[in-house]
Amino acid sequence: MPTPKELANAIRALSMDAVQKANSGHPGAPMGMADIAQVLWRKWLKHNPSNPQWIDRDRFILSNGHGSMLLYSLLHLCGYDLPLEQIKQFRQLHSQTPGHPEYGYTQGVETTTGPLGQGLANGVGMALAEKILAAQFNRPNHNIIDHKTYIFLGDGCLMEGISHEVCSLAGTQGLGKLTAFYDDNGISIDGEVKGWFTDDTAARFGAYGWHVIEAIDGHDADAIDAAITLAHQESDKPTLIICKTIIGFGSPNKQGKEDCHGAPLGQDEIALVRQSLGWPHAEFDIPADIYSAWDAKTSGLNAEKAWTKKLLAYRKSYPELAAELKRRTQGDLPNNFVANADHYILEQQRSGQNIASRKASQNTLNAYGPLLPELLGGSADLAGSNLTIWDGCKGITSEDASGNYIYYGVREFGMSAIQNGITLHGGFIPYAATFLIFMEYARNAVRLASLMKIRSIFVYTHDSIGLGEDGPTHQPVEQLANLRLTPNMITWRPCDTVETAVAWKSAITREDGPSSLIFSRQNLAHQDRSEQQISDIHKGGYILKEPHLPPVALIIATGSEIELAMSAADALGEKGVPVRVISMPAPQLFDMQSTEYRNSVIPTDVRARVAVEAAHKDYWYKYVGIDGNVVGMDNFGDSAPAAAIFKERGFTVENVMQKVECLL
Ligand SMILES: Cc1ncc(C[n+]2csc(CCOP(=O)(O)OP(=O)(O)O)c2C)c(N)n1
Ligand SMILES: [Mg+2]
User: What is the SS3 assignment for 248?
Assistant: First the structure.
């Protein structure tokens, strides 16, 4: 039987060889954390390499994602579908071993990491999801959801502000099944961290309410094992195991130095590593006895089998719950959801309320929420403004996690990345809210949701200068364009209760990416529609008002500016100028429609086109053309009542009319 050191050295060898072959990558972290990984993955991690989707597997997140070769080595050695050929293709085009771990590319990679700190946040989300799902589904003697979450992280993750946000919340929520391993190697890219990172990390995490295990020798398998045992004994608090490690362990000239963080060691040094570790095997050559000691396929199958037995017993005692658990973890919607949503949408058309879209959003949640126990809401301390709490909401607390609403506190970035972790965990459709302007605090998590193509729903209220007196610090201008330029994101800015209900339906039914729902603070006028028009809302853009004569001009608008567009079109109609109004609540969705449909809405030969939106102008030129006009924003807003700012910035019927007329 190979020794623990030899088993860890297999990770070191694969990592340094793959980085060398790619002539790019990060050998230091994998070589430094190999011993910790060896103990965790071979002894403790509950997983089945033949079924990476098993819902009750432990989750493992490499938050220091630059150490991707550590994860790829582990997956390969344990018997996941990641052949040596792929390890040799590290960082090459279309390989299963991208530079940083990417969700959806490699079996067993639970989330995309690389942007430091966010993996940690995703892990907190996964641990929270596990706790909530367990509270909702477990019954006495039936712990059908019962798994742990393990996170590897480095100095970088702890320096990032998001680590404060999410570890603080993890402490408050008492996530006792979360264990994080800190790769305390004293090195980051610029050198020894003592020049820029001198926190007392143990005290910091103690203050968060974590269980902290300090000064573990990260190269001593027994010490690591004992620390994990201790971590598991604490069930009310998350555990941080601070592991003293040497970056690039085994490299005689580079270990302990920043040189090995992010560059190949070089052939000469690699030869020396082989000598110093006593690893005589050739490049990419792993001896059979090492492979067999790592192989987790049989133990994995057995672990899942044992769970399946538990599931059968659970199903026998609680058939309905078992079916519901299956539905939810597969991400399927209840059969009646779409029909009910469509019914609600028609009802909204009939009832014709003039209310703020944030209020319409809350009404929609009250309609859809009872149908969707998987909805898991939250807001960054703005529930009363975002209107994210509906009648069936129950807060999640450390003591009782059976609810469906998370009070995230003022932590926009943490909230958004936690939400991504919840989505990735499965069993939930989460939504998380803040003011649109503070999307920027969360920006990279929004981007990662898009990159991962996952169903995270971001709710953003107070969508423009229309929020009024809070002024330019709170008035979004460029944020809408930012969201719309994000690949895979669908951004909705509905103009009334009907479009709001469609937006929610679309976000909930969408399976291949996130949605942003943008709502107003102020009241919005209800619009008349035919059934065909209601159905066309789902296409992201449609003709809301058609003049009696063929249109000579088009006005394209969204959200709160629809009312203005309609009034301007009416007034122009009275002057004998037939104008079509196009409502474009979700331009990205509109862009996905057939050319035929798009041309039917925006005919190529009607060149007099004006877009109206209280957001950055530039986005709209792709629809109105360089010869078109945009009534929009090209500067920050002002602190004043909404009506006064709208008027001053040209959001008036007269100005829109004039912008149309000057094109005719
Ligand atoms: C948000 C973010 N900022 C910067 C980087 C670039 N970066 C990658 S690794 C790293 C240093 C990380 O130091 P540490 O976590 O200690 O890793 P180690 O060198 O110990 O492997 C930096 C700055 C990044 N990946 N993400
Ligand atoms: Mg470090």
Answer: coil
- Lookup: tokens for 20: 């060398």
Give the number of other Cβ atoms within 10 Å of residue 307's Cβ: 20
CA distances (Å), origin 268, targets 26, 29, 263 = 17, 20, 14
Q: How many CA atoms lie within 13 A of 371 on its CB side?
A: 18
Rounded to the nearest angstrom, the distance between the alpha carbon of 188 and the centre of ligand 2 is 4
Phi, psi of 423 (to 5 degrees): -60, -45
Query: Rounded to an integer, what distance in angstroms lies between the CA atom of residue 566 and that of residue 569?
Result: 5
Residues 475-491: tens digit of each pLDDT: 999 999 999 999 999 99
Which stretches within 40-81 are classed as H helix?
Answer: 68-78
Token pair 């590897």 is found at 152
Q: Pick from 116, 197, 444 the residue to mutate for probing ligand 1's pocket: most ligand atoms within 8 Å of its CB.
A: 116
Give the tens place of pLDDT for each residue, 588-628. Answer: 999 999 999 999 999 999 999 999 999 999 999 999 999 99
Please give the share of the chain, as a percent, with pLDDT higher than 90. 100
Instruction: Judge if the beta carbon of residue 115 lies within 6 A of ligand 1.
Output: yes
- Residue 218 near ligand 1, beta carbon < 6 Å: no
Predicted pLDDT at 64: 98
Residue 256 near ligand 1, beta carbon < 6 Å: no
Residue 19 to residue 270: CA distance in whole angstroms: 11
Q: And the tokens for 645? A: 């700012």
Q: Check pocket membership of 189 for ligand 1, CB cut-off 6 A.
A: yes
| DSSP symbol at 42 | I
Q: Which of 130, 304, 374, 412 is catalytic?
A: 412
How far apart are the C-alpha atoms of 73 and 69, rounded to whole Å?
6
The closest ligand to the CA of 32 turns out to be 1
188 DSSP β-pair partners = 191
Radius of gyration of the chain (CA): 27
Ligand 1 atom with minimal separation from the 64 CA? 15
Separation of alpha carbons 334 and 522, rounded Å: 33
Asked if 48 and 57 count as a contact pair (C-beta separation under 8 A), the reply is yes
Taking a 5 Å cut-off on Cβ, the residues next to ion ligand 2 are: 154-155, 185, 187-188
For ligand 1, whether the C-beta of 323 sits within 6 Å is no
Nearest to 215 by CA among 207, 206, 224: 224
Stretch 102-107: mean pLDDT: 97
Q: Is 324 an annotated catalytic residue?
A: no
Whole-structure pTM value: 0.98
Rounded distance, CA 498 to CA 496, Å? Answer: 6
Residues 165-200 have pLDDT tens digits of: 999 999 999 999 999 999 999 999 999 999 999 999
